[in-house]
Amino acid sequence: MRNSKIKAIILDCDGVILKSNRAYEILYEKLCRKYGINKKAKDIYPLFGENPRKVIGKLFHRRNVDNAYNEYNSHMKDKDFLGHIKIYKGAKHSIARLSRKCKLAVASGAVRARLRPSLHQYSVLKYLDFVISGEDVRHGKPS
Q: How far is C-alpha 104 from the chain's CA centre?
């Protein structure tokens, strides 16, 4: 890439840099149990990547969405939640090397309150020129 004309690379976060499925599985199952919704991880996985408010709306059949979404957001910086998020082997090294050659950005559907802290906890945030969350856009995935 030394003589490349590539000036910037935009990466997704979850499933590319960080393994977060387990953290979300635990959180959604916890919320479902609290609100009496009988859903397990296999019911939740097909919804991953969508806007969290929409996911909660679908899981909760449009009941208690505001309360559950507020509780969801309150967990985004929890050490317990963040502790279940792991970095892919080699991701930090690759990002550090790429950052010396071009600008790097992360564009993710994740909420801002979780995105930056989870990138920071693995010392990846410092290599990124720009981070955009699902809340920073009018139309999220797949738009």
A: 17
Helix (DSSP H) and strand (DSSP E) numbers for the chain: 7, 5
Q: Quick one: pLDDT at residue 42?
A: 81
Contact criterion met (CB below 8 Å) for 16 and 87? no
| CA pair distance 117, 55, nearest whole angstrom | 22
- How many Å apart are CA 112 and CA 65, to the nearest integer? 19
Place of tokens 């479902």: 32
Q: Is the dihedral of CA 86, 89, 95, 100 positive or negative?
A: positive
DSSP-based three-state secondary structure for 7: coil
Closest CA to 109 of 60, 52, 67, 54: 52
**Model pTM score:** 0.83
Alpha carbon distance 121, 51 (integer Å):
23
Looking at the predicted structure, is the pLDDT value of residue 19 above 90? Answer: yes
